[in-house]
Amino acid sequence: MKDQADRLRELALTVKQQIENEIYMNLKHTRVIAVSSGKGGTGKSTLALNLSIALSSQGKKVILMDADMGLANIDIMLGIVPAYNIYHFVQGQKSLREIILSHPTGIDIIPGGSGITELANLHREQLKRILVELGALDGEYDFMIIDTGAGISDSVLSFLLAADDVLVVTTPEPTSITDAYGVVKGLSQHHFAGNLYLIVNRVENNHEGVLLAEKFRLVCNKFLNLDIKVLGYVVNEPLIKEAIKRQTSFLNIFPQSVAARNIYDISSKLLSNDVGGDKREIQKYGGIKNFFKKLINFSKLQGE
Ligand SMILES: Nc1ncnc2c1ncn2[C@@H]1O[C@H](COP(=O)(O)OP(=O)(O)O)[C@@H](O)[C@H]1O
Ligand SMILES: [Mg+2]
């Protein structure tokens, strides 16, 4: 029979466990990944969306933010018509929860819009409200994937510099490669401290992908003294356009295709160097709130 001391010990253990879990949830930060490219049309939105779905199907909670000011198109790709977007949240007309969409693919989406650029013009009190709401998402999501615009205009650069990781997408076209190199160079000049990843999209075959990625990695290493990690490549796949035509996600309707397998390989590789689940390294990622804080600071600096 258990005596009172035993019961007390059990109770103490349960309380200790609860406190530990609570601390863990408070300290856990979402891993924020910005998807970028030098040139438009390299497949940023396609990869941001399908990688989010791949990560989600591998058990991660993912929120995808459409931040391409010029061509916000995640909603078009999925055939959804968001009633509200980040503009309504920034302006205080809607709460963050009210603008987040849950998609049947398992991911959540923050519809883009011009609202993000307005962040720099808000008053202290308004910013506080916004950051408190955004901060509540930290720990709830494992990943925040951000689909940015092409190039390195000031506003795109702010997104990249504020993120934990930047994923550069290029195609094998020489102009796309030189423009991607321009992005990496821009990040290096601004002392980007996060992780840099490369994906070569629309390759003819495995060989072309591996070769190009390795060349790019070596050039960045030699001339910029930067370590860019190769995440993988995705073959050219006409079915990707077919999925967009049908306004549905490629990964869900053509999961057996080579390109879908390429995308799953990339998400596994992202997960293999993920430390978010490791309690000793929970503070490694800056998280969502910190991302927006940095973004606002950069935008303010640019406005001066
Ligand atoms: N691996 C691929 N194979 C074939 N077509 C692709 C591939 N990736 C993207 N595309 C197509 O290229 C076009 C541009 O892609 P998108 O994701 O919108 O690029 P971005 O967001 O960089 O402008 C789209 O029509 C898309 O269907
Ligand atoms: Mg796009």
TrEMBL record:
ATP binds at K39, G40, G41, T42, G43, K44, S45, T46. GO terms for cellular component: cytoplasmic side of plasma membrane; cytosol. It comes from the Bacteria. GO terms for molecular function: ATP binding; ATP hydrolysis activity. Residues 31-178 form the AAA domain. Pfam families: AAA_31. This is Flagellar biosynthesis protein FlhG. The lineage of its organism: Bacteria, Bacillati, Bacillota, Clostridia, Eubacteriales.
